[in-house]
Amino acid sequence: MPKQNQLVVLTIDDHASQRARIAEMLEGPSVRVIEAASVADALEVLERDQPQLVTLDIVFDDDHESDGYRFCARLKERLPEVPIIAISSRGRGVDKSLMQTRGAADYIPKSELTRERLRESVLAVLPAAAGYLPA
């Protein structure tokens, strides 16, 4: 359960370095980033926490049963009000379209991922986050 006056973000990516990078870009006194390395980990997190925002990778190298496309749709069914930002090494327009049709509010190729770009995306999909994000 989020603490009052705290933005809770769930970051799902199978690469620890990418999760840490996203967490570093978002974390601040009013932001708590929860990291999940797989779809199974994310489902465990969702049993105990209610994020207000999710960042989601598309490809999980070690989990051929799950992918971001399918999990995005499952997340939207479970948490229809929570925006999902897809962040992937795939930079093709078709990947962006597929994620958006499955419920992603935005799509950022990892090659374009910067603190400014992520902040811009978060504020576009969750305007209420403005008071929580570090400048």
Characterization of the model:
This protein is α/β, with parallel strands linked by helices and 135 residues long. It has a single domain (7-118), classed as Response regulator (Rossmann fold, 3-Layer(aba) Sandwich), CATH 3.40.50.2300. 39% of the residues lie in helices and 19% in strands. The chain has five helices and five strands, in the order βαβαβαβαβα. The chain has helices at residues 16-26, 39-48, 68-78, 93-101, 115-125, and strands at residues 7-12, 31-36, 53-56, 84-88, 106-109. It has a five-stranded parallel sheet with strand order 2-1-3-4-5, with helices on both faces. Helix 4 (93-101) links the parallel strand 4 (84-88) and strand 5 (106-109). The longest helix has 11 residues, at 16-26. It starts with 6 loop residues before the first strand and ends in a 10-residue tail after the last helix. The mean pLDDT is 87.
Question: How many angstroms does the end-to-end distance come to?
Answer: 25 Å
What is the count of DSSP helices, taking H or I runs of 4+ residues?
5
Overall structural class, as computed from helix and strand content, comes to alpha/beta
Q: How much of the polypeptide forms β-strand, as a percent range?
A: 15-25%
Spatial arrangement of strands, main beta sheet = 2-1-3-4-5
Shape: globular
- Overall tally of domains: 1
> What's the order of the H and E elements?
EHEHEHEHEH
Largest sheet: 5 strands, parallel
Q: In oligomeric terms, what are we looking at?
A: single chain
- The CATH class label is Alpha Beta
Helical amount = 25-40%
CATH homologous superfamily assignment:
Response regulator
Rg estimate, integer Å: 13 Å
